[in-house]
Amino acid sequence: MMSSKSKVIIMSLVASTQLALVGSVIPEDKGTVSGLVRLGYVDQDNAVGPHRYTTALGGILKYETPAWNGLKLGVAGYGVQKFPFATGSRFEDKSDLDFLGENANSFVYVGEAYVDYNANDLNVRVGRQLIDTPLVNTDDIRMLPDGYEAALATYSGIDKTTLTAGYIKRWAGYDSGADISKFKKVAEESHGEALFGVINESIDDLMVQGWFYSIDKKADTFYTDASYNVKATDALGFTFMGQYANINEDRKADGTLSGTDGHIYGLALNGQWKMLTLGAAYNAVSNKEGKSLDLGLGGGAYYTSMEEWTIMGIEDAKAYQYKAVVDMTDVGIKDLSITTLYGEFKSAPAATKMTELDVIATYTHSEVMSLDVSYAKLNDKYDNADGSGGDAGYDRFLARLHYRF
């Protein structure tokens, strides 16, 4: 017998598909309907532990009112329905949790609900919303994006400069913790996170940004990066990038230090020639003994981040990434891109080394329909990268079909 919650989720997804067919004819003065229907499959074969896999259907159904004197409202329902016959483990009765709730359950929740005000160069949004900054972002790498309960203001009245300020109370999503459908505090016993950022593009081909993030009971972070594009010829171009982050730990409610502390340095270079892009990136982490860093809220902005592994939680990390991207349009397959990544992560204090090989294919059939498929192979060189002396290596396959309206 299907549960009432499963019935609600399936009905919501069916409604999303139906509204996709009529959304284009809804008069603008009645507001706009938009959304996403996503079919996903993930399979992870761990070196130690069960071989887990999940198949699920996810959906976002959003309605936004027309603007009235610059003011509008928005609300979006988020949901995931697993396919029980294609979800589980080859060794035990557990499923992969990448797509699902805390107990490997389907779920539905209000992912967005906001008031938005726009006046000339100022935009203010209050409520549940999507945010994209270097260290607070949606990180839409599984079934649904990370979302935030926040107040965010953006001002673009200064020539080629954007100012952003905001405060975040809670968040939900893949990166937020055990139950991805529940909005939770940004850190244990924390009141929230304040952020302020400046982006400047006043020099041609140069983008510079600086951000300050403060999570009480956890850490204060200053982050900055710059990217510069050089066009050598009509067919050949280069992008030079650099980044730096300084994280200072805060005291938790019990008076002890949070342990999130250190410095991150990064350099990257991409070169594009016709259909081929080659790139190399480097990150170095400097910590005091016993300290480590995280990615912020979401997937972070660090150059060496792979499909699976990052510098998160690694003391005195050294990370390298090499990539090749081929745009298949020039060989007659329009809108198909194939990316190969190789990454290496080391920690001398922990005597660990992890390597990762990723192969990613993305195909965009239209603005409505797209597909991405990726394979990641992680090799724990010393069989100790999980922090407890066990082999943390695994193989992961992920496929997602997207229908947007």
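Next protein, fold it too.
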Amino acid sequence: MNKILKNIIGAVVLAVILLVFYLFTFQLSHERLIVKESKAVISIGDLNSKKVNTYYELYEKAAQTDLKEAKKWMKYIKGLDLIYYNDSNDENRQEDKEIIVVNIGWLYPVAKFKQGEYFDDLGKNYFSLKEVYQKQLEEEYDVDKKIYMTNYKGYYFISDDVMKLSDYMRLVIKKEINKNISSKMKGDTLGEAVIDLDGLAQGLDAVKINLDYEKNELSLNGYLYGDLEFSKYFNGIEQKDRKFDKYMGRDKIYITNTDFKGLTTFMRGNINPEINSMLSLTKMFTGKDFEDYMDKVDGEVVYDYVKNQMILPVKEIKDFKKLIEIFAKKEGDKYLLGDGKIIEIKDNVIYYNGIMSEGSITPKEDEFINISLNLGLYNPILKDIYMDMGGKVEKNKIKIRATITDGELLEIYNRMEGEKND
């Protein structure tokens, strides 16, 4: 009896070990999906994660829509990728091909068992969506392209062309990976997209954009990767040296920089030629280049784009006074410009168009720029709804972010809906 019991226990243990081994090895790593020939990847993580469900709640509240039916299917998707790849050589360059990759996790074996209900077998592990479902897609979602599918190592691969699937699967089996893309994908946000720019743009290796939702804020983050020589022009001064960040508030832009001269030189090489010509007039009138004046800016600039006011602290004021006197008439301790604007100078600080009031926004200490963007500038309906933007330099990359609160998102939706109903 003991021998029989031992044999049963041994068999159960072996079966469990084999099952666990299968579950942990049957699926390719996500990195393997990003074949060497990949040009861009859009990736969405688990559609049933806590973070995504929190976003669903926000969307339902904003759109006043019940996602119950959609979430019933979304809960089975553990990952979704749209992969653009190109296996043509440079001499015979063609348009990028696209593949959708669906990860349904532990349900993969069950899905394989059930797939005959939805797909017709074309042979060699390739399938086409049954006509009844193809027609349903066209009628309900306006999808008129034929859908093809194959599966491999825990994933379903979908395309509108069976040859695209075949070409892509051939590349997957080669096991060569585009490290330039895969190394930048973190999988810790709602979704992310990475574009490979290696060899296409000088100094740039890749661009990444991700969308995230946490702490009641929706954020869009952009990253530039590579040997970014120009990034040295975007370094802000230390927090302890900042004196004018307290003026940052709504409708304002705060910039901090250790080398305004270098930044100006870089910007002049990349701006409208007409503006460049206007800046060149500075030397004609003063004998000094515009960059020489910017070299005297003392680390910070604050600009109110609604009131058209600016604070410009400078290291020394003498040359700036000479410059201002060329274009403005001095009246007492103020300078009057031809358009009626006034310039005041106090303690090596130049105030344009009046003394600016302090604001209620504290710029992040690791960012070189902070912008409070009034969306009403682009659409009057959105007046006084704000997006907070910022940028910072990190190792081998520059990050630009744009953040908006869920309360403001709801307000945007309500106003847009109100406009429709008027």
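About the second fold: The longest helix spans residues 2-25.
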